[in-house]
Amino acid sequence: YFIQQKCPLYMQSLEEELDVTGSRESLFSCALTASEEAMAALEEGILHAFQQCVYYVSKSLYVCLPALLECPPFQTERRESWCSAPQLPEELRHVVSVYQATMDLLRQFRVHPEIASQVLAYLFFFSSTLLFNQLLDKGPSLSCFHWPRGVQACARLQQLLEWMRSAGHGEAGERFFRKLSCTLNLLATPRAQLIQMSWANL
């Protein structure tokens, strides 16, 4: 916009002010170079801010995410009659609070929607990758490899995906957590049912 519309007007006023003739191309070249340098500096600043943002948010997620795979036993939670919906489990509330705080800050500082989407996409990718790698690294030592806990871990992930849908990021959540969701679905399937299933169904 600046180069196509503002730059010619700027050069015209500069020519009139300095009484310069025959140097329009030179002025345009200088303005174009200055604009490109400014854009490069701006892009570098945005990239640095993006990296720092996702770094510190990822550190918070790194602490609270593993609890989703190490679920406590099922408990009967007391609910008041006026509650319209059950509250999220504590280990899931910690994760959701990080996502929610990030979205609130992005809106508060009026971050461009495309950049905000990239920040959230990276956080979802980081979260799913961290949890999936933990499944591979720790294996049966995790409680979710035992069927009752596997059922609960799968339910926790579904609750997280449901929250993402309600927050307007359901498509991104489904995309980034698909592999983890499929794995937890297997862990939540009874052994007798798994034995009867074919490899194609698995």
TrEMBL record:
GO terms for cellular component: microtubule. InterPro entries: Dilute_dom, Vascular_dev_regulator. GO terms for biological process: neural crest cell migration; substrate adhesion-dependent cell spreading. It holds the Pfam family DIL. Residues 1-202 form the Dilute domain. GO terms for molecular function: GTPase binding. It comes from the Eukaryota. PANTHER family: DILUTE DOMAIN-CONTAINING PROTEIN YPR089W, RAS-ASSOCIATING AND DILUTE DOMAIN-CONTAINING PROTEIN. This is Ras association and DIL domains. It comes from Neovison vison (American mink).
